[in-house]
Design goal:
Blueprint lengths: L16 H56 L6 H17 L2 E2 L9 E2 L6 H30 L5 H91 L3 E5 L5 E4 L1 H7 L3 H4 L10 H16 L6 E2 L5 E4 L5 E13 L2 E10 H10 L17 E2 L2 E2 L3 H13 L6 E4 L6 H10 L8 E5 L8 H6 E2 L11 E2 L1 H4 L4 E5 L6 H13 L1 E3 L6 E3 L3 E6 L3 H6 L5 H7 L2 E4 L10 H16 L5 E2 L1 H8 L6 H15 L4 E2 L22 H15 L10 H5 L3 H10 L16
Parallel strand pairs: 11-18, 11-19, 12-15, 15-18, 20-21
Antiparallel strand pairs: 1-2, 3-4, 3-8, 5-7, 6-7, 7-8, 9-10, 13-14, 16-17
């Protein structure tokens, strides 16, 4: 059974305008019939009243005559009252006045005036005859008292009385004929209206049946629609629950209305626990602000990019407080005047952990456009070692603690230092970088702390040092292990007391500056050998951050490769659309002594050498360090070696598998055998004749 809303309990399409008109006419006809019936009853009652009054008029006339005779005989009688009643009756019938008669006690009758001309003339004749009768009666009474025994006057009165009675009978007949005619016409109209009402009733019944049939059809259609809608919602819910990405829907107040199975798995919490809860508890504060900015953008512009990108990475968090990077897309829908938002989250940690276990895509080429690269400030990567670094930076950045960043050359120590500054309260103040290894040995103190005029030869003017210039901001001391011992003591004073003197000066200057240091040297060994002050080391080592070498997070190489290829392609005006998987194979098996900086240099040269749209493995040129043997790849399994060998053959043939110039012929295999091995190794042959033409 379908329950409709009260405001739409009867579908408007089921009642036609004809049905409303017919219903109105039918009710009007019934009203007319009832009105005619009541009017007929009233007219019949009036007719009977008039006939009664006319008869009473004759009786009054006779009574009046008797009273006159009684007076003639000397007996008193109230003939004047009788005469007045008779006059009143005639005038009431003629002019429609209220009539009070003695035989209807305590009632006044209101009758209409003479309804026809014939009745009017008859009433006027009665009045004239009554006038003659009254004159005769008055004369008779005056004469009879003086001349008793004369019977001539009474005879004339009797004749007038008889004439009066005859006319009274005629008046009764006229009233009766009028009433009969009126009632007959009324009955005719009643019959006509009754026929019309019957026809209207038939049409009304037909229209009601049609409306009922339409209503039943609409109810059936609506029932089926609701059933299909419920089935569709169930299918959609099943599809959303089977999705690998976390799908969350929000209402206008950013509260969770849907939480699919993947979301429950990602956040380690059930859907029932989060329904109706604010989304804010599942995002970091910065990511929550970014999400709100995107929602506001959806309201202000009709078409907004759905992908949410944040320079330092879009971060989600579990109820335990554990944070992890995600890719996010946001879409908006307006349902019944209310905005709803769908947020799709992809756990990058899980995705790239899976990619690291299967480092090569199943397709011979990356045929998709280069994706937006996840960044933490300017650092690229989603691997666990880098996520640990990002977490450390987030924790120490809001403080003023001294940070010591260690790591091999090219690991991104400066990027980590800059990220710490940008996430700190000092981000809007000075960022001062000092390369300690690049400062002349005799001018290190002058560069750092400044000098007074004449402090040494060539000091022609007073100069502020780097620490003074960085007041209120952050100073980055790169390669701090190269500082001379005498400068290290002054640096220790700045760290402990926040004060110093310029070279050649005696005035103490105070400074408010945060120090971030970096080195690729092992400072602990330097302390043991006496090349670095232990007290300075312990003061700098308040919060150490170690940048991992690239060989320890090779799962980030595909992201870094895509980023640098796209960057160098734009800078050099190249159009590289695809990267052969053999490129990633070679990059993954290299030891990377120069880390990310070396990777960027190798890819820049490869882009320069690439003249078409596909970057191939032979474009890579790895440097040979003096005194070292050529680059050795790590020992591979037979399966890995076979896979790499097939990829090289496909690269050489431009992706062609069969035919005399295909990879199968090059490897000495049948085409079907090669395809079978490619399938087992996760290699999908190119759908084109070649990789956009093989490059020489």
């Amino acid at each position: 059974m379908v329950a409709f809303p009260l405001s739409r309990s009867f579908p408007s399409s089921s009642i036609s305008h004809w049905l409303i008109v017919l219903l109105a006419l039918f009710l009007a006809g019934l009203f007319v019939i009832v009105a005619f019936t009541i009017s007929g009853l009233q007219d019949r009652k009036f007719d009977a009243l008039v006939i009664d009054l006319a008869g009473r008029q004759g009786m009054l006339q006779q009574r009046h005559m008797k009273e006159i005779l009684l007076v003639r005989q000397g007996i008193k009688a109230a003939y004047v009252t009788t005469r007045a009643e008779l006059v009143e009756t005639l005038e009431g019938l003629l002019y429609g006045r209220p009539i009070t008669v003695s035989w209807i006690p305590d009632q006044t009758l209101l009758v209409p005036p003479a309804p026809t001309e014939a009745i009017k003339l008859a009433l006027e004749g009665q009045q004239q005859l009554l006038g003659r009768f009254i004159k005769k009666a008055d004369a008779f009474l005056a004469w009879s008292l003086s001349t008793p025994g004369d019977h001539q006057q009474p005879l004339e009165l009797l004749q007038l009385n008889d004439e009066f009675s005859v006319k009274a009978d005629n008046l009764v007949k006229l009233y009766d004929a009028w009433a009969s005619t009126k009632i007959s016409r009324m009955v005719q109209w009643q019959i006509l209206v009754g026929v019309i009402v019957a026809l209207l009733g038939m049409l009304l019944t037909k229209q009601i049946r049609q409306a009922n049939s339409t209503l039943e059809k609409e109810i059936l259609d609506r029932t089926q629609t609701e059933r299909l809608s419920r089935e569709s919602e169930q299918r959609h819910a099943q599809v959303l629950d089977s999705a690998m990405d976390a799908i969350i829907t929000l209402d206008e107040e950013r509260r969770i209305t849907f939480f699919n199975r993947a979301a429950a798995t990602t956040f380690h919490i059930s859907a029932a626990e989060v329904k109706g809860q604010p989304l804010q508890r599942f995002l970091t504060q910065r990511s929550w602000e970014i999400l709100n900015q995107h929602i506001q953008a959806h309201h202000s512009a009709p078409h907004v990019e759905g992908y949410i990108w944040e320079q330092e990475g879009f971060m989600a968090q579990r109820p335990t407080g554990e944070e992890f990077p995600v890719e996010a897309t946001l879409s908006r829908a307006n349902i019944s005047g209310h905005n709803s938002y769908t947020l799709v989250l992809r756990d990058l940690t899980v995705r790239y952990r899976m990619e690291s276990s299967h480092p090569h895509p199943v397709s011979p080429l990356f045929r998709e456009p280069l994706a937006s690269t996840p960044l933490f400030e300017e650092i690229i990567g989603v691997s666990a070692p880098l996520q640990h670094v990002f977490e450390q930076i987030r924790k120490v950045a809001p403080t003023d603690a001294t940070v010591l960043i260690t790591g091999e050359t090219g690991t991104g120590k400066e990027l980590a230092a800059r990220a710490t500054h940008r996430l700190s309260p000092r981000k809007d103040h000075v960022w001062m970088k000092v390369n300690c290894a690049g400062l002349p040995s005799g001018l290190v103190e002058s560069e750092l702390f400044g000098h007074e005029k004449g402090a040494f030869t060539g000091a022609t003017a007073k100069m502020k040092g780097r620490f003074e210039l960085a007041h209120g901001g952050t100073i980055f001391l790169d390669e701090i292990g190269e500082l001379p011992l005498e400068t290290q003591s002054k640096l220790l004073r700045v760290l402990q007391e926040h004060e110093f003197e310029r070279v050649g000066g005696t005035q103490t200057h105070r400074v408010n500056v945060r120090i971030i240091a970096a080195t690729n040297r092992n400072l602990e060994e330097a302390v043991e050998f006496g090349a670095f002050r232990s007290d300075l080391f312990f003061r700098l080592n308040t919060f150490p951050i170690s940048m991992p070498p690239l060989r320890d997070h090779k799962e980030d190489i595909p992201l870094l490769t895509q980023f640098y290829v796209e960057r160098f392609s734009k800078h050099l005006g190249k159009r590289i659309e695809e990267i052969n998987p053999a490129v990633l194979d070679r990059l993954a098996h290299y030891d990377w002594p120069g880390n990310v900086r070396e990777l960027a240099n190798i890819l820049e040269r490869a882009v320069i050498l690439c003249e078409k749209v596909v970057l191939l493995a032979h474009h890579l040129c790895f440097p040979q360090l003096p005194g070292k043997p050529p680059m050795e790849e790590k020992i591979q399994t037979l399966q890995e070696a076979e896979r790499l060998h097939i990829l090289k053959a496909l690269e050489k043939t431009g992706g062609l598998v069969g035919g005399p110039h295909g990879a199968a012929a090059l490897l000495g295999l049948n085409r079907s055998t090669l395809l079978s091995r490619m399938k087992n190794l996760g290699i999908v042959p190119s759908s084109s004749r070649s990789f956009h033409d093989t490059e020489a």
